[in-house]
């Protein structure tokens, strides 16, 4: 059980996979769906404060080296793709960006967008947290349905 909990927690921290992949992995390893969801939410949120606080500094460092400039440009394009929703709707736009369980969305993308748009970190973290909770509920409902949760 400890291995399942730790695996779910760490998989949820991985960009792209995040909660959407960690939740079914936890259940597949024997965790109850609600326990797996709770652990996946926690794991998905652990890296977010660090991203919000440190990303701008890291991007500035990366711009100085030729080998990492392309990655910075790719990240900036990703931000621009999602800028309109967040600029137009603010907190709600960021929350919805994180909540939609589709490729290219999620807590990491939300934190990247919020950081690059220089949103207030507390507001961004609260929007990302609510978005992760909504995404968790959606993934639970789509994957397991209400009858299989307990």
Name the structural class.
mainly alpha
Overall pLDDT confidence: 89
Kindly provide the radius of gyration, computed on alpha-carbon positions and rounded to a whole number of angstroms. 16 Å
Q: What percent of residues are in strands?
A: under 5%
Distance between the amino and carboxyl termini: 17 Å
Q: Could you name the ranges where pLDDT drops below 50 across 5 or more consecutive residues?
A: none
Provide an overview of this structure.
The structure is a single chain. The longest helix is centred in the middle third of the chain and has 24 residues. The protein is 79% helix and 0% strand. Helix 1 packs antiparallel against helix 2 and helix 4 crosses helix 8. It is mostly helical. It contains eight helices and no strands.
Notable characteristics:
150 residues
Provide a quick synopsis of the model.
The protein has 150 residues and is mainly alpha-helical. The chain has helices at residues 2-12, 18-28, 33-45, 48-63, 66-89, 91-99, 107-116, 121-144.
Q: Which SSEs are present, and which pair or pack?
A:
Elements: H1 2-12, H2 18-28, H3 33-45, H4 48-63, H5 66-89, H6 91-99, H7 107-116, H8 121-144
Helix pairs in contact: 1-2, 1-3, 2-3, 2-8, 3-8, 4-7, 4-8, 5-6, 5-7, 6-7, 6-8, 7-8
